[in-house]
Each structure stands twice: as C-alpha cells, then as structure tokens.
Amino acid sequence: MIRAIRRIGIGAALVLSVAGLLAGCGEPEPIKIGVLVPDTGPASSYGKSIRQGIDLAVEEINAERPAGPKIVTIYKDTGTNVETAKIAFHELVETENVWAIIGPVSSSVARGLAPLAAQAQVVLLSPAASSPALTSEGGEYFFRNYPSDVVEGYTMAEFCRKLALASVAVVAADDLFGQGIAKIFEEKYAAPTRKIVLREYFSSPLDEKRAMEIARKVAASKAEAVYIAAYQPDVAALLLALDKLGTKIPRLATSAVTAEIVKLAGKAAEHLVFPQTAFDPHADNPRVRAFVDAYKAKYGEEPDNFAAHAYDAAKVLVAAIERAQIRKNLKGELWNIRYEGVTGNIDFDLNGDVVQAPRLYAVFNGAVVPYSEFREAMVGRSILAR
C-alpha cells in the first residue's frame, strides 16, 4: 500500500501507464524484473523462501490487473559467488533488458554488483543483504528492504549486557556479513568488565571437522556464551559440534537463522536465542494475515522472514515502477515511496536503507517462539541454561 494520501492501487496505476509501455498497437509489453537468488552456495538455504515470496507477490499483482502489462520475473542463480553473479547481472541487463533486479541475497555479492548497477543505472533491491558496509558502498542504485546489521548487532550486544555476561566467544563467517555484524557486536559489548575471549573466523561452508575444531576452542575459552554470526547451515553445523562435544554453553545467533534451524540442528538448537526483523507471521495485522494465509495455501507452509521480505521487495518495486513509468525515474521513486508492507513500513533513506527494529526469538521445545514467551517459561531457571 502506497502513502495514504495517494490511495491508488498497483493495478489501477499500472493501467494508467500502459500507454507508455505499448509495443505499437498490440498488447502491452511485459514488465521484466530480474531476480538474483542463491540456488547454490553458502546462502542457498534462503533461495527457496525468496523465490516463493516473490512468486506469490507477482501472482497477486498480475491477478489485480488482468488487462495491464504482465509482470514477468527472470531468475538467475548467483551461486553465492560474486563472479557468477556478475555474469548473471549482465545477462539480465543486456540480454533480458529488465527494468530492475531484486537481489542479490548475500552482502558480499551485493557489494560486488553495486558498481555494475551504478554503471548500468539499473536498480538493485535486496531483500536480505544486511552488511553495514553497504550503507556507504552500495551506491545510489542499491536499495534494501532488509535492515542493516547495525541495529541487530547492537540489540544482541545489549542483550548480553542485560544478562550480565562477563565473557563471550565470537565465531563468524569470514565474509562481509559475518565480519561486519561481529564487529558491531564487539564494539557495543566490550567494556572493562566485559571481554571477547575468543574471535574465530571460518570459511563457509563449515564442514564437520572444522566445526569440531571451533567447538573445542569455544569450550576452552570458558566464555559464558557464544555469538555465532554466519549463514544458517553453518550455525547448525556449529551447534551440532558443540552438542557432540558436550559443552552446555549458551548460544546466540543472528537474523540469518529461521525456524529451519530446528530441522537442521535438532535438539542442538534448543535455547538458541536470535533476532528477527519486524515481520511476525502471527500478528493480527490484516495485511500480514492475508499474506500468511495466501502463502500457506499456495505452498503448504508458513512464510519465514526471508519470504516476507522478498514478497515486500516485489510489491514495493512494482509500486515504484508504476509511478516511474520510465526506467530513469525509478531510483527517485524508490527514494520517495512510502509503503506499508507485511514486514513493516518501508521508507528508503538516501543510502537506500530501511530502518526496522528487530525482535528476539528463541528455540524452545523444538519450536521457535518469541523470546518473551521463552523467558516466562524459564522462570526460576537460568534463561540460557541447557
């Protein structure tokens, strides 16, 4: 939904702009949107959710305006690799002539593509890249409706401070995402009475041997908790290694974690605490309820955080396209747009960022629950005890 004073639907506005999109006197040309997803590589676990969120959004948009130009999505696999993503980017821009691109997902790939987007003057809208470095390095054609890790890193550090944890071990993926959020966490947490007793970086994907090596270092550090800044499969590998070693150290993670962690790590995920962005699939908000119901009806499962952000990315991008009418105006329309999505209000600043405060969640009895619910259930026991 666009700013209240406009109150104009995506379908209606696109119909108004059909004249500028006609091919001669025939049918309206389709509006092609490229999508860069990680079907393979370290971030591949997020590809399915992001595809499903985008597909649902596009299906709804096209259904709202049967006489208007169709929205067509063209998917390319990034492999969670910058060079692979660059090839895919050029194919979308030069061969497919897309209006804009949703993606990429990983921060490292986003940083690698941002200069290409600026050179080609093609908008990149990421539903997941969260590194703080992208605020300054993304350039004027990079936008993201997923918040920067700055607020999230501060939130987890403040959580540790409130629990009076005197020492924390930090384990992070050796990439832009892992390094960036680990640095923010450390800056906010460290103090004369609070210390980072272990800093361990690793290359993704994390195999069992390396995971056990790290788990032994964590145990030897005598830290009161471990903060894991990595993609979900690597988090699961480390949780399993910690359990195999028998260490009961409390575990903290990032918003890269979803409910899928329970399937990946089983009992090793119990009591894991992690933040998520503003999307709440159980909220009473009618817009959220409609999205969740439609998603479950189409895919037979509840949408996760990444599906919701991908859904909103598609919706807000098409809303900006229908206002821009020509490609060169799209960047300005994204800066000016106010959109109420299922993940909250989307209002891009001049750096292309949105600002949304995270919520805390925990794994309890094999399910992901709000941290407040977990805390109440743990009354009389140490909150992070395993």
Short summary of the structure?
The protein has 386 residues and is of the alpha/beta class. It has helices at residues 10-16, 47-64, 82-95, 107-120, 133-137, 149-162, 176-189, 208-221, 232-245, 260-265, 286-299, 305-324, 330-336, 371-377; strands spanning 31-37, 71-77, 100-102, 124-126, 142-144, 167-173, 195-202, 226-229, 251-252, 273-276, 339-341, 344-346, 359-364, 367-370.
Provide the descriptors you would attach to this structure in a database record.
44% helix, globular, Rossmann fold, alpha/beta, 14 strands, 14 helices, 2 domains, single chain, five-stranded parallel beta sheet, disordered N terminus, 386 residues, four-stranded parallel beta sheet
What does this structure look like?
- The chain is α/β, with parallel strands linked by helices and 386 residues long.
- The protein has 2 domains: 10-147 and 280-346, 3-Layer(aba) Sandwich (Rossmann fold), CATH 3.40.50; 150-276 and 359-377, Response regulator (Rossmann fold, 3-Layer(aba) Sandwich), CATH 3.40.50.2300.
- Helices cover 44% and strands 17% of the residues.
- The chain has 14 helices and 14 strands.
- A 5-stranded parallel beta sheet has the order 2-1-3-4-5. Strands 7-6-8-9 form a 4-stranded parallel beta sheet.
- It is globular and about 70 Å long.
- The protein starts with 9 loop residues before the first helix and ends in a 9-residue tail after the last helix.
- The model is unreliable at 1-25 (pLDDT under 50).
